[in-house]
Amino acid sequence: MDKPPSGTPLAQLDSLPEKGGIAIDWQDMPLLIVRSGQDVKCYLNICPHAGRSLALPDGRVFVHKETNIICPVHGATFDVESGACTGGPAAGPLTTIPVEITGNDVRVA
Questions:
Q1: CB 97 within 8 A of CB 42
Q2: Are 48 and 83 in contact (CB under 8 A)?
Q3: Which of 3, 5, 43, 107 is least crowded, fewest Cβ atoms below 10 Å from its Cβ?
Q4: Bridge partner list, 86
C-alpha cells in the first residue's frame, strides 16, 4: 500500500484534539493522526495484530496518558512517538506516515 504523496493535506491542526487522535481516510487508506500540542504523528490505522482499526466506529482513538495508543479490539498498545508496540498481542510496530505542519495544515512530508 503506497503512502499518500508528499504535500498531501490530511487535516487542519486546529481540528485535531490537542491530546488525542482521530481516524481519517485518504482515498481507500485508513489513517490515524495523533496530536500532543504542536507535535503530530500519523500512522496507518491498522493494528498489526489482527488487521483491525485502531479507532472506534465514531473515529475516536484511545490515547492513554498522552504516550500510548490502545487498540480497542485486543488491547495492544503503541508508543505515540514511534509507533512501536509497547504491550499486548501486536506483531510489530505501526506503519508510519511522515507528516509536517505548514501553517495550520497537517501534510504528508
A1: yes
A2: no
A3: 5
A4: none
Domain chopping of the chain, boundaries: 9-108
Asked whether the beta carbons of 42 and 83 are under 8 A apart, the reply is no
Secondary structure element (H or E) that encloses residue 1, with its range: none
In the CATH scheme, what is the homologous superfamily, with its name and number, of domain 9-108?
A: Rieske [2Fe-2S] iron-sulphur domain (2.102.10.10)
Q: What is the DSSP string of 31-87?
A: EEEEEETTEEEEEES--TTTS--SB-TTSEEEEETTTEEE-TTT--EEETTT--EEE
3-class SS of residue 16: coil
CA distance 109 to 98: 5
* Residue 36, C-alpha cell as written in the block: 500532543
